[in-house]
Amino acid sequence: MTAEADLFKALGDATRRIILDELSEQDGQTLFEICGRLTMKHGLASSRQAISQHLAVLEQAGLVHTRRQGRYKFHHLDTGPLRSIVERWPIDREEPSP
Amino acid sequence: MRINITSVLVDDQAKALAFYTDKLGFTKKTDVPAGDARWLTVVSPADPDGVELLLEPDGHPAARPFKNALVGDGIPYTQFAVDDVYAEVERLKGLGVEFTQEATDLGPVVTAVLDDTCGNLIQLATMK
């Protein structure tokens, strides 16, 4: 129940959804790259601390995993937790187009 | 007033000279003894009379914690301009250079971030 609450909370914020979009486009990003993408591509002027907090929420929900490689820390997307959504509310098979 | 020198804090001047010349393609400009270190600068062959890059020893106790904190978050403190980031990334990867950020289109600019092996991340940029 808590895990589910964490998941929906994480998805409930537009900036966090954009972070997931960007990690979906390029997996394994440093905090710097994520900040750069949000600023330059999306015009979001959040502080590095704010982005860091967003990432912590995503990590708490299991949607982002961090990996230390050498001296740098990379953030990876994990869409696994989203499975619980379609398991709870299955998606109907698409009708074949006429 | 004009900018004539900017610095990168390197953990080993000889190693830094090799990386900045052999891999990145700069040329050595000044190399004179300065105490137990060297006054060691490189320039771009495209602009030999332009801004010099000083390969400055990072021996000050505050330098390495500062550098480590930046590198941990992937932050490049220094930027170099290149004609084509995509091509330069390919060239440097061929020389074994490690990147923390692939060539990324950010709208007005394409950037990538490499590890200079001397404790710094360096950004490459091509303005569109």
From TrEMBL, chain A:
Keyword Repeat (UniProt): no
Membrane spanning residue stretches: none
The keyword Membrane is annotated on this UniProt entry: no
Domain HTH arsR-type: residue ranges: 1-97
Pfam families given in the database record: HTH_20
The name this protein goes by in its record: Helix-turn-helix transcriptional regulator
Keyword terms of this UniProt record: DNA-binding, Transcription, Transcription regulation
Automatic annotation (TrEMBL), chain B:
VOC domain boundaries: 2-127
InterPro entries xrefs: Glyas_Bleomycin-R_OHBP_Dase, Glyas_Fos-R_dOase_dom, VOC_core
SUPFAM superfamilies: Glyoxalase/Bleomycin resistance protein/Dihydroxybiphenyl dioxygenase
Pfam families documented for this protein: Glyoxalase
Classification via Gene3D superfamilies: 2,3-Dihydroxybiphenyl 1,2-Dioxygenase, domain 1
Protein name, entry field: VOC family protein
